[in-house]
## 1
Amino acid sequence: MGFNMAMWRLLLGFLIAAGLAACSTAPTFDAKEASVAEISAPPAPAAMAAPRPAKAQSTLGTQWGEGRESVTKVVQASRLTPDRPRDAGQMRYSDEDSIRRALGKYAEQQTNALLADGDVELQVLGGNGAALRIFSTRGAKDFHVAGRNGERYELVYTNRSKRYYEVVATVDGLDVLSGQPGSIQSAGYLLRPGERLVIDGFRKSDREVAAFRFSVKGRAYANNTPAGDARNVGVIGSALFEVRLDQRDPDLPRRRAPEVELRDPRDPSAFPADARQYAPPPQYRR
């Protein structure tokens, strides 16, 4: 009898201990199961999933086109954030068929792109003044401009805000003012509140630009100038800086650049970086 009572007490002790252990581990187990269920939830149906942004390989470049009158002047201003643009981005360009094939059924079409939270609208206008089609993947900002070989185009920035912006623009990786590799440190064009800025070519002087014209890639300016890089052909870039005008001297005429004799780039030069202020003409290989 004594032995049986001892065994029952021992067994009852094990049962009580097991019950306490179960009570103490249950919340942890439930929480773990909830967490696992959330992490390993089945993916959304294909119809609901956001499409991946596509990138159309460009079939076009931008050629150094005919001279067009475009007078510019210096405005004294300072960037509010010198090393950090308010907005920066790029859009690719190619022929429309290539773009549609790359984007497939998710292609959406628009006539402009919004920059700086909508402060600035960017349009690409053709030679007839009509906006070129801009395609993107549904829900993404992978902008693609549809161009045609030989067509002239312009970059048009419209300021819908009361802020002053500086626009640093590049075409095929080259700064549109200097023709040198694009950098956010480069100087840009002033875009005043409510105004419209038209950039229609690579700047040749303070009074003239070489028009932007879509071309085959082999004739692209970036493929025929020492500063260019073939990998960047087919891309248009924009960086916007909010600026503050110097109210003491807000609008000065641009000082004329000194006349510089054009030289063979293979010849030696003591001050090569100072040879030109604006974009040099192309050097076609054939």
## 2
Amino acid sequence: MSRTPKGGRRKLDASVPPTYDVPTREPRFDSPRAARNIKALTFVAWLVGTAGAATSVIAVGALSNVSAPSWIERPSAALLMIVFTIGLTHRGGGFMRIWLPMVTVLAVASVVLETNMLLAASAGVTAILAAVWAVLVTRPAPTIVSATGEYIVTLVVALSGTVAVAAWNAPVDYQRFNLAVLTVSLGLAITLVWNLGAGLHGLGRQNVLYLAGVAAVIVLILVYSSYVRSNGSQALVRLIDDSVIWMRTHIDGVPRPVEVFVGFPALIVGVSRRAKRRDGWWIQVFAVIGTAVLTTSLVTPGAFPTYIGFSTLYSAILGLVVGLVVRHYVVREPSARAARAIEEVVRVEPPRFAPLK
């Protein structure tokens, strides 16, 4: 009869490499070469669409007599909306034969007919798809450097959605449009993350506390900002207005609190947590708040691209700092003694452009 020594901790068996813990769909193409060609074509379409849509907010040829024609803006936005559909549907394991034709019809009809309802619908769909895909395209990040890299990837994808929404030049009410995009984006992200994060039963007490804390911060920011504007003292309101005016005058932008304290830090913590546990997806759901606010920032024709650009830059820098600070306390590295006693848990996921389920 064998006995286990008292007081000791066994190391995990690392002889078996870790595997992905979510079932994935079969490859869409039997030929690996065809799959690579489709990915390359989609990437080129994303580059072309982003460059064409960016002409709606960037003065091309300002130093010469040649300028980009205005007619390429909406077709470029339509191309990006189709690319976002392909990327999100493929990443989320959806049915391409259903969603791609529907979005393609909407894109073509919006470009050809140019009615207000179709333009507003296309701008909303583009913002939602870009916001959610920017979060799902990330990969687990075990280190600070890799987490920062995933942070940059998310911002690049979300910014391409921002210029696409601006290129639609849709006549919408910003407040209602922003609220609708934010609500649908969160709902879509929660639906996709349900299986990726092992459902609500996979959260655990610690992550429930994290999510409750993030939700409390969101409610606090929204309620406090609304209360100050309606019931705050004149001195406080004047101080806030003067601070905003000073920042707009001297640094050409104002950081957005929702991105700095909620959306962007949730992205850093989420990708870092996913490197060890799949419930990190539930934290990363709140990153959609930041990307959704970003993709809708240029929806109104009266928005100043320079002001929005600097505001986004400041929000990204401050959000990264806040996220790294929170990551230090949430995703702590094991002590030297614990590392000797037990092997560090490493979780793997499919490549960046492969289905997650």
